[in-house]
Amino acid sequence: MEVQQRKTSLAGVHFFWADERCVPPDHPDSNYRVMHARLLQPLNIPDAQIHRIKGELGPIPAAGEASTEFAARVQPVLDFVFLGMGDDGHIASIFPGDPLKESPTDFYRPITNAPKPPPERVTLAMHAIAAAKNVWVLASGPGKERALGESLSSDRTPLGQVLKRRILTRIFTSIPPK
What we know:
By secondary structure, this protein is α/β, with parallel strands linked by helices. It has one domain (15-173): Rossmann fold (3-Layer(aba) Sandwich). The chain is 27% helix and 17% strand. It has 5 helices and 8 strands, in the order ββαβαβββαβααβ. The chain has helices at 31-40, 59-73, 126-131, 145-153, 158-165, and strands at residues 15-16, 19-21, 50-51, 80-84, 108-111, 121-124, 134-139, 170-173. It has a 3-stranded antiparallel β-sheet with strand order 2-6-5. The chain has a 3-stranded parallel β-sheet with strand order 4-7-8, with no helix packed on it. α4 (145-153) packs parallel to α5 (158-165). It is globular, with a radius of gyration of 17 Å. The N and C termini lie far apart (44 Å).
């Protein structure tokens, strides 16, 4: 029996970040550094398809530049957003207690007081996440059971707020059901 392999072209796929810490792109805490080394470089994704958040500029200029690039490239919404959930129910760099003061025209927001280091970050705005065609969330690892349960039953966490605003969000977890 002959097995046929199907090649998938990534020529039209552009990569944006849901959040970035305000560090240089080669810093160990940089989300870009991890994605570049583990995904983009092995797949030979051209630089023209990579739209990183320039955290090294600081939160306000980096959010402004990322919003401008996003608005120029994404029409009208993202096709796919893949997020991780933190042990407090945070997604991207939107943490519990965030007042979510967002402008509908700004797709990225500066964060200057994140409760986890480093405090300066840039995050994709909640309205951009909620409007995406597909949102997948990975809720995996020890200590996340409570946050996942709270997110599924209320909108007190950022993940819970996304779930409330969307018809379908896929959640992948290794947390056993109770």
